[in-house]
């Protein structure tokens, strides 16, 4: 019968070998990914690269999960594979329309306005900000 030490060493060696195999596979797949052309849906967009009217999706705004999911649900009515674009957000013409997004409060609205302003859509952000301020001022 094998000793405890023999069993332990057999197990540790097998674990080490498995870890080395996984690390090697990870390194190979990472090298494959880096050498391949990156598809558009995996490309990270920076707000400073946005142009007005561009069909960039809203993921480039780095929104909170709550806000992203609310926008995704709202615009996702166009189909399950549809990813909302900045143009979609710009199509929201008033704060009354924006309020139709479920499960959002003042903080989320302000986040969206701030992110759109940072992306260069200052006219839209200013208009929404003014309407938002009036709405919450009248509620108090």
Query: How far from one another are the termini?
Result: 80 Å
> On the 0-100 scale, what is the average pLDDT?
81
Report the β-strand fraction as a percent range: under 5%
Oligomeric grouping of the chains: single chain
The overall number of domains is 2
Number of helices: 6
Give the radius of gyration.
24 Å
Overall strand count? 0
Secondary structure category: mainly alpha
Could you name the ranges where pLDDT drops below 50 across 5 or more consecutive residues? 45-49
Instruction: Characterize the main sheet.
Output: none
The coarse overall form would be: elongated
Proportion of residues in helical segments: 55-70%
What does the model show?
The chain is mostly helical and 140 residues long. It folds into two domains: 4-36; 41-139, no CATH class. It contains six helices and no strands. The protein has helices at residues 4-35, 65-75, 86-90, 95-98, 106-118, 122-139. Helix 5 packs antiparallel against helix 6 (122-139). The longest helix is centred in the first third of the chain and has 32 residues, at 4-35. It is elongated and about 80 Å long. It starts with a helix and ends with a helix.
């Amino acid at each position: 019968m094998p000793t405890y030490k023999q069993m332990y060493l057999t197990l540790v060696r097998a674990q080490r070998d498995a870890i080395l195999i996984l690390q090697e596979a990870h390194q190979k797949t990472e090298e494959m990914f880096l050498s391949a052309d990156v598809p558009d849906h995996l490309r990270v967009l920076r707000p400073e690269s946005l142009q007005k009217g561009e069909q960039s999706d809203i993921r480039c705004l780095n929104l909170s999960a709550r806000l992203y999911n609310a926008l995704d649900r709202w615009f996702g009515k166009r189909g399950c594979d549809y990813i909302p674009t900045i143009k979609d957000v710009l199509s929201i013409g008033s704060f009354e329309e924006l309020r139709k997004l479920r499960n959002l409060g003042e903080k989320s609205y302000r986040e969206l306005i701030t992110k759109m302003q940072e992306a260069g859509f200052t006219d839209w952000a200013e208009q929404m900000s003014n309407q938002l301020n009036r709405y919450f001022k009248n509620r108090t």
